[in-house]
C-alpha cells in the first residue's frame, strides 16, 4: 500500500510541475523542426565534401553533429527543469554545453557495439539472441542516462553507473510512466522513442493534417521529456521513506 501511495504522490507532483513547465516553455516543442533542418543540411554537406575514402571523416562529423544536437536539447531541458525558462541564448550555448559528455557516451557505445558484433559473428544465431537481450537490457538499465548527464555533475562513466543504480532503486516509479508515454507517442506518430531521442521524425506527410499530427506528437514528446526531468530530479534527491515522512507535513 505504501508503494502505491508513493507512486501516486510522486506522479501527482511531477504532473503539476510538468504542466507548468510546458506552459511556460512551449517553444521547446518547435526545436524538433530546427534539429531536422540542421541534420539534413549537415548530412548533405558532409557527404558532398567527404566522399570515397574520406567518408570516414564524414562519419566523424555526423557523429559530432548528432552529439551536439543531443547536447543542445539536454541543455534546454536542464534550464526548464532547474529554472523554468529557456532563451535563444540557451539554444545557442546548448550545442557545446554537454557535448563532451554525450560524445564520450557515444564512443563507449561504439566500442560496445563493435565488441558485440564480433561476439555475434562467432555465436551465429545465438549471437543474434544475445544482441537482442543486450539491447533491451541497455534500454532499460540506461533509460535515465540523459537525465543523469544533465542533472548530475558526473563524468560519463560515472553517469552510466549512476543510471544503473538509479534504475535498481526506482524501476517501478520510472518505467511505468515512461512506458505509458512511449505507447501514446507511438500510437499517434509511429515513432519509437530511444534513449537519446531529441525529436520525432516529420516524415513525408507535409499536408496540414500531417503537420498538425507532427506538432501534436512533438508536444506529447516534449511533455514526456520534461516529465522525465522532474520525475528524475524528485526520485534522485529522495527516498520512499523520506517522501512518505515529508508528505505527513
Keywords:
globular, mainly alpha, transmembrane helix, 249 residues, membrane, transmembrane
Helix and strand pattern: HHHHHHHHHH
Estimate what percentage of residues fall within beta strands. under 5%
Q: How many helix segments?
A: 10
As for the number of domains, it is: 1
Tell me the total number of β-strands.
0
- The average pLDDT is 89
Largest sheet: none
What gap, in angstroms, lies between the N and C termini? 19 Å
Transmembrane segments: 26-50, 56-81, 102-122, 128-150, 171-188, 208-227
Keywords: Membrane, Transmembrane, Transmembrane helix
Task: Give a verbal description of the structure.
The chain is mainly α. The protein has one domain (2-243). It contains ten helices and no strands. Helix 3 (55-83) packs across helix 9. The radius of gyration is 19 Å and the shape is globular. The two termini are 19 Å apart. The model has no long low-confidence stretch (mean pLDDT 89).
Annotate the secondary structure layout:
Layout: H1 2-24, H2 31-49, H3 55-83, H4 88-97, H5 99-123, H6 125-141, H7 145-151, H8 156-189, H9 208-236, H10 240-247
In short:
This protein is mostly helical. It has helices at residues 2-24, 31-49, 55-83, 88-97, 99-123, 125-141, 145-151, 156-189, 208-236, 240-247. It has one domain (2-243).
Amino acid at each position: 500500500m505504501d508503494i502505491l501511495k508513493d507512486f501516486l504522490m510522486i506522479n501527482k507532483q511531477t504532473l503539476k510541475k510538468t504542466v507548468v513547465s510546458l506552459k511556460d516553455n512551449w517553444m521547446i516543442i518547435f526545436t524538433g523542426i530546427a534539429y531536422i533542418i540542421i541534420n539534413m543540411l549537415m548530412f548533405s554537406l558532409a557527404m558532398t565534401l567527404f566522399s570515397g575514402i574520406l567518408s570516414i571523416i564524414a562519419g566523424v562529423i555526423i557523429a559530432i553533429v548528432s552529439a551536439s544536437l543531443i547536447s543542445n536539447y539536454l541543455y534546454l531541458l536542464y534550464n526548464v527543469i532547474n529554472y523554468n525558462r529557456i532563451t535563444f541564448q540557451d539554444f545557442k550555448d546548448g550545442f557545446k554545453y554537454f557535448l563532451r559528455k554525450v560524445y564520450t557516451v557515444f564512443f563507449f557505445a561504439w566500442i560496445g557495439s563493435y565488441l558485440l558484433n564480433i561476439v555475434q559473428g562467432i555465436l551465429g544465431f545465438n549471437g543474434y539472441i544475445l544482441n537482442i537481450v543486450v539491447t533491451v537490457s541497455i534500454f532499460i538499465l540506461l533509460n535515465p542516462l540523459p537525465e543523469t548527464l544533465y542533472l548530475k555533475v558526473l563524468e560519463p562513466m560515472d553517469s552510466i553507473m549512476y543510471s544503473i543504480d538509479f534504475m535498481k532503486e526506482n524501476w517501478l516509479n520510472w518505467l511505468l510512466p515512461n512506458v505509458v508515454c512511449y505507447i501514446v507517442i507511438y500510437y499517434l506518430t509511429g515513432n519509437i522513442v530511444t534513449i537519446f531521442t531529441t525529436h520525432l521524425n516529420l516524415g513525408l506527410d507535409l499536408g496540414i493534417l500531417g503537420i498538425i499530427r507532427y506538432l501534436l506528437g512533438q508536444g506529447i514528446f516534449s511533455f514526456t521529456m520534461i516529465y522525465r526531468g522532474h520525475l528524475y530530479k524528485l526520485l534522485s534527491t529522495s527516498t520512499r521513506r523520506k517522501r512518505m515522512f515529508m508528505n505527513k507535513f
